[in-house]
Amino acid sequence: MSKKVIVIGSGPGGYPAALRLKELGAEVAIAEAWDFGGTCLNRGCIPSKAFLDTGHRVHAFEGLRKLLKDGSGVNFSADMLDWTKVKARRAEVITKLRVSLEKLFQVKKIEVLRGRAAFSGPGEVTITGPQGEIKRQFDAAILAAGTRPSFPPVFRDFQEQLTDSDRVFDLPQRPESVIIVGAGVIGLEFACFFNAMGVKVDVLEILTDILPGEDPQVTRAVRSSFEKRGIKFHFSRKAAGIEIAGGAKTVILEDGSKLAADEILVGAGRAADLAGLGLDGLGITWDRRGVVVNEFMQTCLPHIYAVGDVNGLSLLAHSASRQGEIAAENIMGARHTFDAGLVPRCVYSWPEVGSVGLNKAQADAQGLAVKTSRAYFLGIGKAVATDETEGFVQLVFDAGDDTVLGAQIVGGPATELIHVLALAVKLQLKRSDLKGIIYAHPTMAEAIHEALNK
Ligand SMILES: Cc1cc2nc3c(=O)[nH]c(=O)nc-3n(C[C@H](O)[C@H](O)[C@H](O)COP(=O)(O)OP(=O)(O)OC[C@H]3O[C@@H](n4cnc5c(N)ncnc54)[C@H](O)[C@@H]3O)c2cc1C
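That is the input. Now the predicted structure with flavin-adenine dinucleotide docked in place:
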């Protein structure tokens, strides 16, 4: 008899798990309380990239301005864009992808259960939805319930009047100005988009820099590029209060100074919403980050797994997918583990950022002796020809045997190039191995070759 498995949540953690389980011969049902595809497809990765693509086209047009005939195009500005159409384009993209996902479930014969699922026993889930209350027995379950935007205490009482990464996609009109709270990936991507759309952007950050944990060379390059375009950062600044009057929303800072804008977008973190999942009843444990799992993605009940954002190990879609597949394979008898060291970390702004493995500070903290080499896109023919000279490729090597331990890329197609270096880290390649590749000319990948020769 095949194993009965229930997956809770159809985001990038849940749906690859369901597909893999089916492939391996399990009887699979997937429960979804909201929209198929989860945060990633509906309110995260995909809609934000559709918005960023619009912003990038505006940015690219600005680059073309110097080639226009005198007097033509001088009137073009981002506020000529129709905000309703910008939003409609993102909705179109989401619908297309969501429909194909739903079809995939159908084709693969995965049972779809619409509604909110909760554990009602160690081998039973109750789903409450449009069809009423239904119960399903399981041999194993995967919890992939994701996270929701979280509001720091000062902002909490004003949640309805402020916006967050879920609701920003539905703003009725393009604001003239926005304060973005948080200079992590989500904050930076929205800062980049709104700036390209002609919106005045202030970014408020309690820490001293953008992208916590990222290499200082990377953060310096990104910060300086954003600042040149007029995005203003306010570091080491803590909000003490909010005032909302008329059309203006004001953040009062601890030193008494104020920042006002049409919109305040709180992008300062996400948290798992574990209420109502029935975890207490089963004794499943969680902490500040989310549901506690071991390296095999098992909760303290070995037949119940938790993957993706809900376990808080790595709040990225591709981490969720890998963990989902690992949980599926482990349910079917494997003993696979998740290696967080191989997860590419990307920012889809311009300049783009892609990092993998260790940076120098992380290597130092682990007591590893490393050397770094860096090549700037400024010296690369393709970069000069395409006017994309911002940024660099930086490689981190073991100082002893030249094994590639990590890489950081700013600029160019950093989010694509990083995969070559992810492979190098995974296979523990040496500098000489990467030098053995022939790099096509002219490409941005030649910056990797240059960095190897430094
Ligand atoms: C603006 C933004 C941009 C982002 N961009 C990127 C990016 O470019 N790259 C990247 O890697 N990551 C990005 N992320 C992060 C990425 O979206 C998440 O890491 C990813 O969605 C996590 O996947 P998940 O499956 O764990 O959870 P989710 O995608 O959140 O899916 C969880 C699903 O479970 C459902 N659910 C919850 N509780 C229940 C229940 N009780 N019963 C039934 N269903 C339930 C929810 O409705 C949801 O559909 C972004 C996030 C945001 C907010």
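The chain is about 30% helix and 25% strand.
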